[in-house]
Amino acid sequence: MDRRESLKLILAGGLGTGLLATASCTPSEEAELNAMIGEYGRTPEEKVVDEKLMADRFFTDAEMATIAVLSDIILPADESSGSATDAGVPAFIEFMVKDAPSFKTPLRGGLMWLDTESRKRFGKEFVSISGAEQLLIVDDIAWPDTARPEMIHGVRFFNRMRNLVASGYFTTRMGFDVLGYKGNVPGVWDGVPEDVLKKHGFAYDEKTLRECLDPATRTKIIEWDDRGNIVG
Fold first, then answer.
1. Are residues 65 and 162 in the same domain?
2. With contact defined as beta carbons under 8 Å apart, do 98 and 53 qualify?
3. pLDDT (tens digit, 9 = 90+) per residue, 51-78?
């Protein structure tokens, strides 16, 4: 499954909006996530809660392996950017189930459903079957409008996973770069564009251009006297 197809799936299922830093499993991931916590403006009290959540563990190693495989199916790598696991999305999902406990039962139940469906079709758990076989299952639960009624539990699980994967990925630096998101950057106002002024029969006079729109003095704070004249 390529990136374009995966994004179509995300748009079809609706993009989740949970915006949080995440928990991790390896020391290097934990260090990166701790740095993230310092970046997104947490209060000292919130940091204490985050640290407690990060010290805990909900998913088993087997469950995390399944989450990683499914995350990369939803958002695989392409020629210009990494996959969901490259962005640390499984760790985000691990954090989310601890920060929002209502996720715990649906996600664990969904992972069990996925393995059960995989064993029923192919005799192995989801992470042990081939990529093509994994996609056969995913294709049956990724499109809610066309999914068979007996796939409803898988559909609900995949919708939730898709939202979490998208939320986790697109709130990382890698996701920002994919979107072309620049954040808050200072802008420069060069006045009303010339073509707009001409369209309405206006033009800046030399005094305004010199005193208000000169790039060399754009950082200068203008002062006026009591008569409305610019001082200096």
1. yes
2. yes
3. 888 888 999 999 999 999 999 999 999 9
Can you give the residue range of the structural domain that contains 206? 194-231
Nearest-angstrom CA–CA distance, 222 and 18? 44
Q: What are phi and psi of 184, to 5 degrees?
A: -80, 115
Q: Please write the tens of the pLDDT for every residue from 122-143.
A: 999 999 999 999 999 999 999 9
- Record the pTM: 0.65
Residues 161 and 86 in one domain: yes
Instruction: Looking at the structure, tell me whether residues 221 and 137 fall in a common domain.
Output: no
Both 44 and 133 in one domain: the answer is yes
Rounded to a whole number, what is the distance in angstroms from the first to the last CA of the chain?
64
Burial of 188 (C-beta count, 10 Å sphere; 0-12/13-18/19+): exposed
Within 8 A by CB and 6+ apart from 91, the residues are 22, 23, 24, 25, 29, 33
Model pLDDT, residue 17: 38
pLDDT at 211: 72
